[in-house]
């Protein structure tokens, strides 16, 4: 499968400059983030992707949409691949707000409040990543899946730190990383 970290968000831009939480709830992409999403769509145009799984955060949906348009695929929104709740940006938008912002997106199974109420311990995110790894490994066509997610979830799944707009190929049938080095770039 291919993992794609969302493009640069308003939070990423300000946090990179100050290393302080700027207090932005469910931020959207910056112009650079939109460019990164378009670049991902271009880079993935030749891939044989049959499904796109995406986190319910707006920055992930905005990153996935150009890829979905390019490939003619629907987005499958799943909170399982959401970010680790650690900053203000990890407070999501309620499902009713997402339905208004993205009326063409199927959000039928999404709870109104789909993010945790408090900061997630690293072990909880690692458990969520292990569950996702097992679910993907059970699919015959996992290699044709794109997952648009976040730094923390990708770190928990692979043990690797990725930048905004960066992609990784992952074989979910291989073992999980023995240790997750929880350091943000």
TrEMBL record:
Q: Which Gene3D superfamilies match?
A: Phosphoglycerate mutase-like
Q: Which Pfam families match?
A: His_Phos_1
Question: Which superkingdom heads the taxonomic lineage of this protein's source?
Answer: Bacteria
Q: Cite the CDD domains for this sequence.
A: HP_PGM_like (cd07067)
Query: Which segments does the entry list as coiled coil?
Result: none
Note the InterPro entries from the entry: His_Pase_superF_clade-1, His_PPase_superfam, PG/BPGM_mutase_AS, PGM_Phosphatase
Descriptive protein name: Histidine phosphatase family protein
């Amino acid at each position: 499968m291919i993992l794609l970290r969302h493009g640069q968000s308003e939070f990423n831009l300000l946090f990179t400059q100050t290393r302080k939480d700027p207090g932005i709830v469910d931020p959207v992409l910056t112009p650079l983030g939109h460019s990164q999403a378009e670049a991902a769509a271009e880079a993935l145009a030749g891939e044989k992707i049959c499904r796109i799984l995406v986190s319910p955060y707006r920055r992930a949906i905005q990153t996935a949409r150009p890829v979905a348009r390019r490939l003619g695929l629907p987005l499958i929104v799943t909170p399982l691949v959401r970010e680790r709740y650690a900053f203000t940006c990890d407070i999501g938008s309620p499902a009713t707000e997402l339905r208004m912002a993205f009326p063409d997106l199927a959000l039928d199974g999404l709870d109104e409040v789909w993010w945790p109420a408090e900061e997630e311990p690293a072990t909880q995110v690692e458990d969520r990543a292990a569950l996702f790894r097992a679910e993907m490994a059970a699919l015959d066509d996992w290699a044709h899946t794109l997952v648009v997610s976040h730094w923390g979830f990708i770190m928990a799944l692979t043990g690797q730190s990725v930048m905004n707009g960066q992609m990784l190929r992952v074989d979910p049938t291989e073992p999980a990383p023995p240790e997750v080095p929880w350091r943000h770039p």
